[in-house]
Amino acid sequence: MPQTEHQLIFQNVQSDHLRQWFAETLAAYPELLPHPIYLRKVAMRYSTMRAQPVINWGFFRRAHRHYRVDFSNHLEVTVHVKVRELPREVVVGWFAHELGHIVDYLDRPWRGMIAFGLGYALWSRYMREAEKRADSIAVDHGFGAEVLATKRYLINHATLPKHYKKRLRKYYLSADEIEALITAYEEEGEMPDIVEI
Ligand SMILES: [Zn+2]
Question: How far is the centre of ligand 1, averaged over its atoms, from the C-alpha of 125 (Å)?
Fold first, then answer.
């Protein structure tokens, strides 16, 4: 019998609604069914949410890899914005984006994952491409409105630090770019190439 339920493990996530929203978002990603997926709350210095493969024996065999989405509830951005206080649409858009990263990792052998990690950390263009792919995959899974809501929320939220907003503009798709993705997805059911501005 084919597997129909995701293997979802929560680590340090007390909020019932965050658990619920993550499970609902994950349900739209059937290609992740074979992989255990963790949602973990953890203190992070430089990011608010991130998606990574778990480094264990499964890491070396694509089919057996585990993946983890980490979110921070303490530092930097979340001093100003607590994840558990965000509206549903914004959180779901964010989760959908992180799961988009994981889909983007699925076909990469372990050496490819290490190359990805280095490229992401060292080369801003590589990072922007990766962020673009994660948004595109999320839109492709039906989360266009939510991804847009996340973007608008972060850009418009008055209390976010300036350097964080600057980073958002530099590395992430703009609301207009996401709207173009959604329109193309609705009209043709496929993703267009995004033109660099
Ligand atoms: Zn991302």
Answer: 13
CA-to-CA separations, 115 to 104, 106, 112, 119, 138, in angstroms, rounded: 13, 14, 5, 6, 23
Distance 173 CA to ligand 1 centre (A): 10
Residue 31 · residue 103 · CB < 8 Å:
yes
- Measure the CA–CA gap between 26 and 138, rounded to whole angstroms: 11
Give me the residue spans of the domains in the chain: 8-185
Residue type present at position 91: V
The pLDDT tens digits for 45-100 are 666 789 999 999 889 898 999 999 998 865 444 456 677 778 999 999 999 999 99
Calpha distance 98→134 (Å, rounded): 7
The Cα 65–Cα 76 span in angstroms is 30
β-strand partners of 52: 68
Round to whole Å and give the CA distance between 26 and 32.
8
Q: Tell me the pLDDT tens digit for each residue of 10-27.
A: 999 999 999 999 999 999
Residue 153 to residue 37: CA distance in whole angstroms: 26
Q: pLDDT digits over 90-147, tens only?
A: 999 999 999 999 999 999 999 999 999 999 888 888 989 999 999 999 999 999 999 9
- How many angstroms does the Cα of residue 94 sit away from the middle of ligand 1? 8
